[in-house]
Known about the structure:
binds heme C
Amino acid sequence: MRRLSLFILGTVLMLSGCGGGEKKAESHLDPNTDAGRGEQVFKTHCAACHAVKGDRVVVGPSLAGVAKRAATRVEGLAAEDYLRESIIYPNDYTVEGFAEGAMQQNFATQLTSDEVNYLVAYLMTLK
Ligand code: HEC
């Protein structure tokens, strides 16, 4: 019984830790919006390779300002569509200076279509 209540206490502490202070401090978007949800998906699946501020290269290019760049990447492709394609079909367009295939390739099956929509909404805030 004591163990169980300790476990519950731990879980409650962990959950409140996630919802509260620590994550909020680094996140600036409302988590109840599509873009805010996208920011969370981004932290889980993308942040290991992409910075979103400055022009620091982690593995991939920084995505600071990507909403603007996205509109000019492929002729005839709107920014949102370009972003969606770069997640699902990363080799359709390869950013100059990076190797084709260096971006993770399996997001079409790893992410739900909702998650991709949220990500696109989030990336569109990176102006
Ligand atoms: C294993 C590292 C890695 C992961 C994980 C990764 N990327 Fe990338 N990404 C790259 C690399 C490398 C490039 C540049 C090469 C290319 O264009 O394919 C890139 C390119 C991009 C571009 C094109 C940027 C531009 O300026 O045109 C976008 C957008 C992008 N990634 C979004 C994402 C998103 C969203 C996720 C998470 C779902 C993600 N990436 C996960 C490595 C990664």
